[in-house]
Amino acid sequence: MEKFRYIDHTGDLGVEVFGDSLNRLFQNAGEAFADIMTDPRAIRRRESKAVSLKADRVEDLLVRWFNEFIFFFETEGLLFSRFDIDSIDESHIEARIHGEPYDENRHTIKTTVKSATYHQLEVVRQEDGWKATVIFDL
Amino acid sequence: MRSGLSRKDVQKHAHELAETLLRNIPSGVGSRRKDLKLGRKELERVMTEGVGWTLDNGYGSAEDLAHIEDEGCIPNADPDKVSDRAFERGRAQLGTLGSGNHFVEVGYVKTVYDAEAASVMGLEEGQATVLIHTGSRGLGHQVCDDNLSVMLKASKRYGIELPDRQLCCAPVESDEGKEYMAAMAAASNFAFVNRQMIMHWTRETFAGIFEQNIDDIRMELVYDVCHNIAKIETHQIDGKETELCVHRKGATRAFPPGHPDIPETYRSIGQPVLVPGDMGRHSFVLVGTEAGYRETFGSACHGAGRVLSRRQAKKAAKGRNVSREMEDRGIIVKAASRSGIVEEISEAYKNVDNVVDTLHHAGICKKVVELAPLAVIKG
Asked: Which of B152, B155, B309 to mutate to test the interface with A (most CBs of A within 10 A)?
């Protein structure tokens, strides 16, 4: 199954993310974000953060999930490449995410993301799993 | 900013200027200042006092104050309405350019369209100028993110039907509306200070390279105006003075001659309006007009606007040496990263000439001068 695919949006950038379960959808969303920022293969797993988020709707939970990565990048320079989700449903997520601080000698930043938006935001259950559409503000 | 230098002065040192500016002003991805990390109390002062804080701390000059929208301090800012996360994002970012379309551009006055207005602004043909484009950085973004969650709930509570959830909102006079306005004012004041500090380091850079005192180089602020903010203003609606909340998204303020909210120096000509083009094309200084005040609530676009998405721009720039192309055209571009340059190629934007001519011919603004770039730093 394809994990994610880019969609074009003038001025901004969007992704469609897929997953056969909600757990997998959020993992793939994490991987999509890493791919937007840099080459995920260059991110070593040397630091971990615990993430615990709640939201009224699964769409909003996904926006918060992305915005968590942005916050850690801006405040501590952290990039993540592995996303272990301990528990998840449509209104909460508990996870440990792993990565390392940005190092200009080893990481090339492709795009910096200011935030995930609610614009055209969608998380839908399909026959073979879940699909999410998110537009980022760059 | 205008200067006492000429196009020729700058051209001689264009490489050195771009390189030194990039070194002195943290730019690009996750840019932060290692020398300046503010504690909570100081940041609160930045957000409530705006440029007043800058002056107290030795950045910027008191003469600039009159040439900043609202004299660099939007009233009723309340840092208590700004979240801990926003504080955390903001504390190492004051005095940084950031990434995306933010820039410092050293250029010169190429054409004068309106001699009288240009002279009031102290601008003349061949004179070196500097344009600075940046804002409230991660702090402002966090204020937005935090309030989107609040507004999504508020929209539901006030029964507002949304065509798109990103457009969630609340009545301006509601608690949510008032709290947001107070947080936005705090972020705007942070942005004023950010630009003033970058202006200070730009002056220092010039003084160092031209081996002159900061004062002798006469780099004076022409005007500093916000993008993308909402303000409470009085406008005529059906012949009646009405208090409105004017949100200039993708836009900037453009007030007409005589308006009390513009600096006295500019009352006779109208408020200076800055419309930068992409890094390879020209930028324009215009002034607001009475017709624009009536038709657009005193607003104009704040740039040319993109035609290619950033991904499309990257594709179009594949295999090209964009810095070299720019250099061949006499423009030195330095950026913290390659993506900072390729996403901003000229083809990615509308031709600013057409955009500005539309403003001019529609009567929304009047062209004053055209600025051409010589050295640009990008995030």
From this structure: B309
pTM, to two decimals: 0.95
Q: Are B37 and B45 in contact (CB under 8 A)?
A: no
C-alpha distance from residue B368 to each of B2, B21, B168, B267, B294 (Å): 14, 27, 38, 15, 20
pLDDT value for B34: 67
pLDDT in tens, B15-67: 999 999 999 998 876 667 767 778 899 999 999 999 999 999 988 888 899 99
Cβ of B337 within 8 Å of Cβ of A9? The answer is no
ipTM of the complex: 0.91
SS3 B156: helix
Instruction: Give chain B's residues under pLDDT 70.
Output: 29-31, 34
**DSSP assignment string, B196-258:** HHHHHHHHHHHHHHTT--TTTTT-B---B--BS-EEEEEEEETTEEEEEEEE-TTEEE-PPTT
Q: Is A105 an 8 Å CB contact of chain B?
A: no
Whether B249 contacts B167, CB under 8 Å: no
Active site residues of B: 302
> How close does chain B come to A32, measured CA to CA in Å?
15
Residue from B288, B252, B340, B30 nearest A75 by CA = B30
**Residues B20, B140: contact at Cβ < 8 Å?**
no
Compute the nearest-CA separation of A118 from chain B (Å): 5
Instruction: Test B306 with A75 for CB contact under 8 angstroms.
Output: no
Helices within A19-125 (DSSP H only): 22-37, 58-76
Distance CA B131, CA A14 (A): 31
For A45: left if phi > 0, alpha if psi spans -120 to 50, otherwise beta; the answer is beta
